[in-house]
Known about the structure:
Blueprint: E1 7-14, E2 25-32, E3 37-41, H1 48-56, E4 63-68, E5 71-72, E6 83-86, H2 98-102, H3 104-109, H4 113-126, H5 142-154, E7 160-164, H6 172-189, E8 192-197, H7 200-206, E9 209-214, E10 217-222, H8 224-229, H9 234-239, E11 244-246, E12 250-252, E13 258-262, E14 265-270, E15 281-285, E16 290-292, E17 301-311, E18 315-321, E19 327-333, E20 346-351, E21 356-360
Parallel strand pairs: 3-8, 3-9, 6-7, 7-8, 14-21
Antiparallel strand pairs: 1-2, 1-4, 4-5, 9-10, 11-15, 12-13, 13-14, 15-21, 16-20, 17-18, 17-20, 18-19
Family: Belongs to the ABC transporter superfamily.
InterPro entries: AAA+_ATPase, ABC_SmlMolc_Importer, ABC_transporter-like_ATP-bd, ABC_transporter-like_CS, Mo/tungstate-bd_C_term_dom, P-loop_NTPase, Transp-assoc_OB_typ2
Protein name: ABC transporter ATP-binding protein
Amino acid sequence: MTTPAAIELDAVSKVYGGRSDVPVVDTVSLTIPAGSFVSLLGPSGSGKSTILQMIGGFTAPTSGRILFSGEDVTGLPPERRPCNTIFQDLGLFPHMTVAGNVGYGLTLRGEPAARRATKVEAMLGLVDLAGFSGRRIHQLSGGQRQRVALARALVLEPSVLLLDEPLTGLDERLRQQLRDEIGRLHRRLGATFLAVTHNQDEALALSDVVAVLRAGRIEQIGSPRELFERPANAFVARFVGADATIKPQAVEPGAESWTAIVGDRRIACTPPPRRADAGGYVVALRPERIRAAGPGETGDLGPVDVVAATYKGRDVEVETRLGDGQTLKFLVPVHGGAAPPSPGARIDLAWTPDRALLVAETRAAEA
């Protein structure tokens, strides 16, 4: 017998009053397997937070159904759903101690004080806050407050944890540290985690499955590797980092490989995952996989003119201009690689792997 999914969205839509012709969420269907880590990835206004709020019961869908383990919970309030939510603002109580915050839900459930204290201390140890039970919220760093919010949600042993931009507002070091801790907690507890984020690095690092959203619709669902290596269209490609794009003058379909014609160059490309509509195709490359062709080497594209070289810390971002006026940027590592070309130089470009990605410019029908 097949185990029901932890969460199912069945053609869920949300339209707010006064904007009846513009759905914030537009007929989204999504299946989230039990025990998985799924991220909703998209820019501001893509509908990802609204989806999370509807799953948590804080916003009612205009149409469609929401199911937990096969049970329709569309009309149930948040407290009757088998999930906990960590909001972006955390919602911690400043007048309570850390232990009071973590144990708040247990208190509402009527847990005896001794059992509550045992569970709180165990959970604080799990999130590396042992010994912090008596502290007040204002005495904690941003990362420690995030851990308190995690502990407060997880101490109730929910089957589903919803995280709304869980790493927002932290510096890079703390973001990486807490990202690793969230991944560790997911693996240890085996609960279903659903996160909302606009950061592709977080989504790709944490998730089993990522759903990329734009304008209330899902553009692509897949594993991080699938999105990284085979984005469905130019929007997904740019959002997950293949943001060095070129518009070809023409494309020639083939059985094993397609050809994009840019200037006088014929660029070998992987066949597009989806056929394009009127928007046509773009050649999509990851900037870190592009390099200046060496002396005597026939590059994949060129000649191009170097117009700028900008230091970015670990890399130098080199901006080039093609003969038709299009620009293409690529990255040169500061350490361990060749020196970046200087502005004013004329170079050929090469890339790894040999075949570039060819993707539809706009949302398109399946090939």
